[in-house]
């Protein structure tokens, strides 16, 4: 089946550091990629949607300058959390979709801990 | 807007018990419906899906039927195992809304031996 690889799986860093998370579709071309944030014991909150070669569309309340998204190719999207602070600590999950009517396939998530 | 309402958990069952997790939806168009499973510390895995009314999705002993008349997509399994312990998310994707996916709140299932 479709495979999405997310890296790193866990990051622990100091406040003020910028952290980049990669999301790759390994065996299909991902026209659209999605970035979610999940708080403990809660559902997924969509942060942004990105189409290859276009600027990401952010959900209301998500800071564009804080969460930089790049989707430069059909197999790779990156999320950069700039100048991370403890309140940015969370579980971030990406997903990718090929054709418009296909389901999303999810990465294994990245647990980000800011000290 | 589109939304998914899912049975609140947590749900605790003994091994071999019957499982039902309720899910209802609200959508303006003709959504596709999904169940995803999330094991501890991992991302989401697609469990099953149904793309039109009366379709039944099934996988690994789980099944769910797309009921348009009751706007429901309840997840069922006849005999759960300890390895089924996870969080289950109901979701919909509406092609008239850019196919953006909306998730329910998730239901945590714990199966005890």
N- and C-termini, Cα separation of chain B: 41 Å
**Shape summary of chain B:** globular
**Tally of alpha and pi helices of chain A:** 0
Strand percentage of chain A: over 45%
| Most residues in contact: chain pair | A-B, 22 and 22 residues
Strand content of chain B: over 45%
Mean pLDDT of chain B: 91
Number of strands of chain B: 12
Order of secondary-structure elements of chain A: EEEEEEEEEEE
Number of helices of chain B: 0
Distance between the termini of chain A: 37 Å
Structure report:
The complex is a heterodimer of chains A (115) and B (113). Chain A is 0% helix and 52% strand. Chain A contains no helices and eleven strands. The mean pLDDT of chain B is 91. In chain B, strands 2, 5, 6, 10, 11 and 12 form a six-stranded mixed beta sheet that branches. In chain B, strands 3-9-8-7 form a four-stranded antiparallel beta sheet, with no helix packed on it. Chain B contains no helices and twelve strands. The relative contact order of chain B is 0.34. The N and C termini of chain B lie far apart (41 Å). The chains are: A mainly beta (115), B mainly beta (113). The A-B interface holds A 4, 6, 34, 41-44, 46, 49, 93, 95, 97, 100-101, 103-109, 111 and B 32, 34, 36, 41-46, 49, 89, 93, 95, 98-101, 103-106, 108.
Please specify the SSE layout and strand pairing:
The complex is a heterodimer of chains A (115) and B (113).
Chain A: E1 4-7, E2 10-13, E3 19-25, E4 32-38, E5 44-51, E6 57-58, E7 67-73, E8 76-81, E9 90-97, E10 105-106, E11 110-114
Parallel strand pairs in A: 2-11
Antiparallel strand pairs in A: 1-3, 3-8, 4-5, 4-9, 5-6, 7-8, 9-10, 9-11
Chain B: E1 3-6, E2 11-14, E3 19-21, E4 23-26, E5 32-38, E6 44-50, E7 56-59, E8 62-65, E9 75-77, E10 86-93, E11 101-103, E12 107-112
Parallel strand pairs in B: 2-12
Antiparallel strand pairs in B: 1-4, 3-9, 5-6, 5-10, 7-8, 8-9, 10-11, 10-12
């Amino acid at each position: 089946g479709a495979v999405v690889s997310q890296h790193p799986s866990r990051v622990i860093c100091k406040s003020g550091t910028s952290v980049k998370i990669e999301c790759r579709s390994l065996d299909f071309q991902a026209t659209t990629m999605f970035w979610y944030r999940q708080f403990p014991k809660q559902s997924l909150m969509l942060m942004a949607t990105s189409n290859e070669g276009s600027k990401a569309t952010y959900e209301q309340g998500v800071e564009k300058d804080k969460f930089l998204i790049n989707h430069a190719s059909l197999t790779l999207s990156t999320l950069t959390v700039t100048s991370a602070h403890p309140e940015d600590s969370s579980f971030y999950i990406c997903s990718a979709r090929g054709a418009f009517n296909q389901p999303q396939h999810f990465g294994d998530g990245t647990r980000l801990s800011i000290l | 807007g589109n939304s998914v309402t899912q049975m609140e958990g947590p749900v605790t069952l003994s091994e071999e018990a019957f499982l039902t997790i309720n899910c209802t939806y609200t959508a303006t168009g003709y959504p596709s419906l999904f169940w995803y499973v999330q094991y501890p510390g991992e991302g989401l895995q697609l469990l099953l899906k149904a793309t039109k009314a009366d379709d039944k999705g099934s996988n690994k002993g789980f099944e769910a039927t797309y009921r348009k008349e009751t706007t429901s997509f309840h997840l069922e399994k006849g005999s759960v195992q300890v390895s089924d312990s996870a969080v289950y998310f109901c979701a919909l994707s509406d092609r008239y809304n850019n196919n953006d996916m909306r998730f329910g709140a998730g239901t945590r299932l714990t199966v005890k031996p």
